Amino acid sequence: MSDPLPSNLHQAAIQAALNSHWETAIKINKEILKVDPQSIDALNRLAKAYFETGNYTLAKKYYSATLKYDPYNPIAAKNLKILKATKADGKQLLPTTSGKISSSLFLQEPGKTKVVNLLKVAEPQKLSQVYPGMQVNMVVKNRGVTVATLSGGYLGVLPDDVSHHILRLTKGGNKYEIFIKAVKVNGLIVLIKEVFRSKRFHNQPSFLDSSQRGSNIDMLSATKIDDLADEDSDDSEELEEAEI
Length: 244
Known about the structure:
6 strands; 2 domains; Serine Threonine Protein Phosphatase 5, Tetratricopeptide repeat; 17% strand
């Protein structure tokens, strides 16, 4: 006799995907589809699970099934296009999560990296599509920094203080990359990594820990960037008054 299935199957399916338990995800989503064959979320999750286990034929089948019931579904359309294009090019697809993430990816370098909890995160269904080690985009705007997938899918925003800091540094010429560090049902943790430091900030670390700050003063105030402070004064006021 098989073990009883969780009462909240959709939540269990999402959790399985977040934890990269793809075989479990396949089992749970199939159970959902027995009851509701037209469940768009279950079809997409099942296709994703098959893709991650290397079964691209079934991944294509279930993404196609999604589009049968929801012709404009962006997740299915995007991934089906990738599957078809890759096959046409003769390239070998690889699962997006191999389960072997290099520990060096998350090596925290003093002054160059910062771990941040995102705010206003996307819904769990969207979070289940990302994974630790995945590179994402920082979308820099005048009033803050949004984090999105490389294809443009919204994931969350950086806290105001971090956004304000990154805005100043990027305007000064610094460049950063951002990676998913941990995924939860209703939360997302990212690692921000400095990949280029401009001459203007030659001796200025991008990030200092609390013991190095001494007080809750913007670390940029101690550097030779008075010109940035002047040109960004209007943006600073806007950041304090408006939500991202």
